[in-house]
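so my prof wants the structure for this chain in the tokens format not the other one, which i didnt know existed until like an hour ago. anyway here's the sequence
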Amino acid sequence: MVLKPRIVPYDLRVLRVLNSRMILSEKDKLDLFYIGKGYKGEVQFDLLTEQLQEGSIVLNDLLLKCGNTFF
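here's what i got, hopefully its the right format
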């Protein structure tokens, strides 16, 4: 059961629009690549978690902190 559906991150949407309208700097191109790659992986993970047994709860898009590490 998915409680919070996945949405395309704001940064990714902005970079995609800018990429179609102008020539991005190398840093922005890398950001677009890595943010897009991360989003694609999250969507693939969502497809895998859809196959879990009933009674499972999936919370997407959480940012947790343990010590000085965010995950």
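also thought this was worth mentioning. The beta strands are 65-66, 69-70.
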